[in-house]
Design goal:
By secondary structure, the protein is α+β, with helices and mostly antiparallel strands. It contains 6 helices and 28 strands. The chain has 3 domains: 124 residues, Sandwich (Immunoglobulin-like), CATH 2.60.40.2890; 132 residues, Immunoglobulin-like (Sandwich); 108 residues, Immunoglobulin-like. Helix content is 17%, strand content 38%. It has a 5-stranded mixed beta sheet with strand order 4-1-7-8-9, with no helix packed on it. The chain is globular.
């Protein structure tokens, strides 16, 4: 047995290595963290009119937001490329006299490695005629490319079809509209107004109060692959319990009424009942899901996917406003989480920079930022701009957190006082 122990250990290490390689092979999620960081710098070189340059960059996984870069200033993105060298960041560039969006792949791992193998810094000058990359040997901006101003129609159609097949984003607009109506049918003494809150994977339809015997309707285009799903919470005034149900499940409902475009439901405490297309009676009934079960499902789902994008988890918006009002200096911000480096951003006085993300169901999401300004360029201040546990104590279930950055420290907007009164010291 003792002689087999080293062999078992070797086999386990080989298995782990294989799994890591397959993970890298099949995904490009936020890069590969054993790879060194890559820095891509974009310099505004619109020297003809010295106008501001507006940049919007995305990868397959991340939307880096819109950034306005003054003439002769720069914007930088930082990331880990994957081992397969398939990492790609594409950007749109606009300026006042440009009239149209100019598109370009600012980082293409295969293309750029041919110009500078294993480089970790790529510097670009953006001008009206073309983007030009710096030659690492001559230090001249010699590698120039044409803009990608349009996409062929055939490719657009192909991408739209693939988009429909793999997602449920806003439905598929060549499909006829589907109408789903929910009637408040709870007429017992415990009844009253019904509060309905419906969502799909992509859309939050908001909260609606439906009086007894009245109805609320949602209208949408289902996708061709029949994966469209709308899930709703239901609550009555005399109960503290939320009930949940998938009010539209394309696969399930097509089995009851194929190609129907109208589905009518009556919602009772005993469960939702769908109208039968032939008898016109509400005879197709289901059980409501209790809140505790849904919480369990959420936790189970999050345990397998780590981060839940959708399914009752809202996007969170954190806005950082430059309030260095003594000399109106620019504020330089660099934010990171455990998974993402959001790059360096320069915020003019009284302007703001926003980050958007899905928090974890475990209440452990954290974004920390470094901040500095021209008055003390060598001094860097640090602060956790979003700490899920801390911020939820100040505003439970908030989706927007607004901060003003002063020299003395950051202050968060209070939903109670409607002022920036929740102030903290800089991290030590």
């Amino acid at each position: 047995m003792s002689s087999s122990t080293p062999l078992n250990l070797i086999l386990q290490l080989v298995l782990v290595a294989c799994l890591l390689f397959l993970s890298c092979k099949t995904t490009n999620v936020r890069g590969w963290y054993f790879q060194p960081k890559t820095h891509v710098v974009m310099i505004n070189d619109l020297e003809s009119d010295r106008s501001d340059l507006t940049i919007h960059c995305k990868s397959k996984d991340d939307d880096l937001g819109i950034h306005v870069v003054p003439f002769n200033s720069s914007y930088e993105i930082v990331f880990h490329p994957n081992l397969e060298c398939t990492t790609l960041f594409h950007c749109s560039f606009t300026w006042p006299s440009g009239k149209i969006d100019h598109l370009f792949d600012i980082y293409d791992c295969l293309r750029d490695n041919k110009k500078c193998n294993k480089c970790k810094h790529y510097i670009w000058k953006i001008n009206s005629t073309s983007p030009c990359m710096q030659n690492n040997e001559t230090k001249k901006f010699a590698f120039c490319y044409d803009w990608k101003n349009s996409t062929p129609l055939g490719l657009v159609i192909c991408l739209l079809f693939l988009w429909c097949k793999i997602t449920n984003v806003k439905g598929w607009y060549f499909q006829p509209k589907t109408h789903v109506s929910m009637i408040n049918g709870q007429d017992s003494p415990d009844g009253g107004d019904l509060t309905v809150h419906c969502r799909s994977e992509d859309d939050d339809l908001g909260i609606h109060v439906v009086p007894f015997n009245s109805s609320y309707e949602i209208v949408f285009h289902p996708n061709l692959s029949c994966t469209t799903l709308f899930h709703c919470s239901f609550k009555w005034p005399n109960s503290d319990i939320y009930y949940f149900f998938n009010i539209y499940d394309c696969y399930r409902d097509d089995q009851k009424c194929i190609k129907c475009k109208h589905y009518d439901w009556k919602i009772n405490l005993t469960g939702p009942c769908m109208k039968h297309i032939k008898t016109k009676n509400f005879t197709i009934c289901y059980d409501l899901i209790h809140k505790v079960l849904v919480v369990f499902l959420l936790l189970s789902y999050s345990a397998t996917k780590v981060r839940v994008s959708g399914f009752f988890i809202h996007k969170t918006h954190v806005a950082i406003t430059n309030y260095l009002d003594s000399d109106r200096a620019d504020l330089t911000v660099h934010c990171k989480s455990k998974d993402d480096d959001l790059g360096v951003h320069v915020i003019p006085f009284n302007s703001s920079y926003e980050i958007v993300f899905y928090p974890s169901v475990w209440d452990n999401t954290l974004f920390f930022c470094s901040m500095k300004w021209s008055e003390t360029p060598l001094v860097t201040h640090w602060f956790d701009i979003y700490d899920e546990k801390r911020d939820n104590k100040q505003c439970q279930s908030c989706e927007h957190y607004d901060w003003k950055i002063n020299r003395s420290g950051p202050c968060m907007f209070s939903q109670n006082t409607k002022q920036f009164t929740i102030c903290y010291d800089w991290n030590k």
